[in-house]
Amino acid sequence: MKAIAVRPGAGSPEVVDQPVPEPAPGEALVRICRVGIDGTDYEVIEGSHGGVPDGDDRLILGHEAVGVVEDANGTALEHGQYVVPTVRRPPAGVETNDYFERGEPDMAPEGEYVERGIVGAHGFMAEYITSPYDCLVPISAELAPWGFLVEPISITEKAIEHARATRSAFDWRPESALVLGTGSLGLLTVAMFAETLDYERIYCLGRTDRPHPTIDIVERLGATYIDSRETPVSEIAGAYEPMDVVYEATGYAKHAFESIDALAPNGVAALLGVPTDWSFEVDGGRLHRDLVLHNKALVGSVNSNRRHFERAVDTLSSLPDWVLESVVTGVHGLEAVDRAFPEATARVAAAGRASTAASDDDTTIKTAVEFTGI
Amino acid sequence: MKAIAVRPGAGSPEVVDQPVPEPAPGEALVRICRVGIDGTDYEVIEGSHGGVPDGDDRLILGHEAVGVVEDANGTALEHGQYVVPTVRRPPAGVETNDYFERGEPDMAPEGEYVERGIVGAHGFMAEYITSPYDCLVPISAELAPWGFLVEPISITEKAIEHARATRSAFDWRPESALVLGTGSLGLLTVAMFAETLDYERIYCLGRTDRPHPTIDIVERLGATYIDSRETPVSEIAGAYEPMDVVYEATGYAKHAFESIDALAPNGVAALLGVPTDWSFEVDGGRLHRDLVLHNKALVGSVNSNRRHFERAVDTLSSLPDWVLESVVTGVHGLEAVDRAFPEATARVAAAGRASTAASDDDTTIKTAVEFTGI
């Protein structure tokens, strides 16, 4: 079968031939339909994040997948059921651990998990995968074409669950919410805030000139677009309003600290970005005092568990089609795999090893690879 | 009647004569027994925090009080009942607001409250006070001598409630806890961690040479003393162990940021200090990434509400007498009020206006003023 793999640091993925995997007892065989691509995939391609399984020299990519059960292999699943696989598995050679037994692999510390398609385990960009049946979350045939968005939505489900938990000791009534970032995760989160949560006023920070499709999506969702070049995060509270919720999806470290300034009293900032080391000056006294005197909270959040995937399926069903159609700017077959990875292709082109198919298309928001039509 | 007041910035408090207050309907008249003194009182005395009531030029101090009902004035209280008053009240001229109606004045933003003895309302350092009866929390006669510790303990009750809330979205099993600071609040928190919470391993950071009574208290409680001059907060995880809980009671802003380094995966730091502005460099990229990839949380906490006071009364009853006797290093009558405020007295002495009674006694931990014996 065909699969998309990378030698970390190689700069671009390649299509490879692999044997079709055999499901072990308790596993199902899944025929993959579509796999989404996000920033983490590019980090793995670059070699700045993740790693190959022990003993391998390349990694099959992909952690945002939707497929269909080809062989239930005696498990509780049924042939033909569409499913979305979760991402974390116990480390190689380990059957389970406390975190997996509690259904909370998203809370496992480093060394207690591998992540399919990211670190230590092959991913889902292949014609077939196997997976323990309880790591496969059912999704309806109707939603299946968008099923590769379940994983990114589940990331926000978890972050918002944790952010709300931080405010659960009192009667919290959030009205205003700010999303930092206009990538696909930021835009899906703006859509969730507008469509499934009760935030009355939603803002989204980007740094793109008008006109731009991301700004169109923000505004069509009824949210206010804020250009970070005109209004830095630290000035948003004064220029717009203090925010009950900040959702950081930029990976820009100053935003994590400036989000304290952006928060209203009793507000919470959920941090999701994964920056590299970067030292800079902060008014730490003021930020510390502000956190304390105004009961503010910061909460970091990574990964998600089955519960969040199930909630994400519900959320996906309540997002308008136009949002999904606008956010997903390309679904490409294996024959056009370079178009599915425009950033990698652009980098390769920039490095002088140009592929004629490459184009640095800055209107690309979210792409996916299609292995089988739905 | 006698009261202890300050003209903010004057540098030391003074004993003044005041008319005995008359309880309004719904208020009781309370004869004050003892009032504790903490860092906030010194900030008010210095003029760096708080403020007088509108139209006044001085503030009666005191927010950590215990007294006895002198005149229940038709309320549900009884004559002779020992009580501890809560601190926040609605702003002058305002009967209530949403936060007070919900019983959560501790979550009110600036402008929506005054604080007795701190900002905008006279405090409890007087022979008599009046208070709405529902702001008076009953305490037994047996505990009343220590009743002035209920307010500081309630501050920790709230902080811990909020810290636990941040971790309520998953199955959190904290074992290790680190208290930053060996002031009275830090020591009472170490005692709570040891006596009423389930932390298996407790650490307390100070910067005092041995032998010292604060270190003795820490160690007698079974906790490990860490000298910050030998082990900075950012190195505690490596030198001792990563902490599931960090409780910051130093007001030293770098500790707020270094607490991220001290935390274990899935840990939470509760911040309580109130520093002044101070800019310094942080590796913001590393701290941001660490918060995210390890699901860490920071939560600021200020003040407390009646529920926390009630819980603090329970906690107080379960702390060993030796802890209370060791933490409270002096209870002084009005005739020796300068001994109750050793830091103010020491500062005045240092400024060349020496009071012969002054001594900068570095074994002082917690003092109180006594108005009436119990």
From TrEMBL, chains A, B:
Belongs to the zinc-containing alcohol dehydrogenase family. Glucose 1-dehydrogenase subfamily. Its cofactor is Zn(2+). Catalyzes the NAD(P)(+)-dependent oxidation of D-glucose to D-gluconate via gluconolactone. Can utilize both NAD(+) and NADP(+) as electron acceptor. Is involved in the degradation of glucose through a modified Entner-Doudoroff pathway. Residues 1-22 are annotated as: Disordered. The gene is gdh. Its EC number is 1.1.1.47. NADP(+) binds at residues 182-185, 272-274, 301-303. This is Glucose 1-dehydrogenase. It comes from Natrinema soli. One of its GO terms (molecular function) is D-glucose binding. One of its GO terms (biological process) is non-phosphorylated glucose catabolic process. Keywords: Carbohydrate metabolism, Metal-binding, NAD, NADP, Nucleotide-binding, Oxidoreductase, Zinc. Residues 25-140 form the Alcohol dehydrogenase-like N-terminal domain. It comes from the Archaea. It catalyses: D-glucose + NAD(+) = D-glucono-1,5-lactone + NADH + H(+); D-glucose + NADP(+) = D-glucono-1,5-lactone + NADPH + H(+). Substrate binds at residues 40, 115, 151, 303. Residues 144-346 form the Glucose dehydrogenase C-terminal domain.
